[in-house]
Structures are given as structure tokens and as C-alpha cells.
Amino acid sequence: MQAVGGQQLAVGMASLSMGGHLRVGMEDVLTISRGVPVESNAQLVARAVDLGRIAQRTPMTPAQCRELLGLS
Fold first, then answer.
1. How far is 41 from 3, CA to CA, in rounded Å?
2. Number of domains observed in the structure of the chain
3. What domain range includes position 49?
């Protein structure tokens, strides 16, 4: 699943709860919280990792991601 802007957190948690995956980046969201601009993609990656922890999921390694996408 993918969401842009303000729905990104809710849709991200829904995706994780159904076994899906997340994709994050500054191209999809301009603020890290209401009125606070995103400074780097690293902020969004850290938040995605935190969401994964809440959902009891661990981040994929780059190799696992390439395999999932059929790029290995």
C-alpha cells in the first residue's frame, strides 16, 4: 500500500498489519508531523522502522528487498 501526505501513517499501519510492506520518501510527504517539515529521507525511514516495531515487524535487508522485487 502507498499513501501520500497526511494518510501515510494510517495506511502504513494498515499495510503492516496485513503483512504488507512500506515505501517511504520525501516525494510522498512534506511534513514529519503537523507543521513540521521533513528534513531528510532518514527521518521517514526511522519513522517507518518505528511503525514496524509497533506492528512487530522487522525491516528487510537490501538483499531481501531486491529478492522480493525480483532484482537479485
1. 16
2. 1
3. 5-68
* Region of residue 53 (phi > 0: left; psi between -120 and 50: alpha; otherwise: beta): alpha
Interval 17-68: pLDDT, tens: 999 998 888 888 888 888 999 999 999 999 999 999 999 999 999 999 999 9
In three-state form (DSSP H/G/I as H, E/B as E, the rest C), the secondary structure along 2-68 is CCCHHHHHHHHHHHHHCCCCCCCCCCCCCEEECCEECCCHHHHHHHHHHHHHHCCCCCCCHHHHHHH
- DSSP structure class, residue 70: T
Residue 50 · residue 58 · CB < 8 Å: no
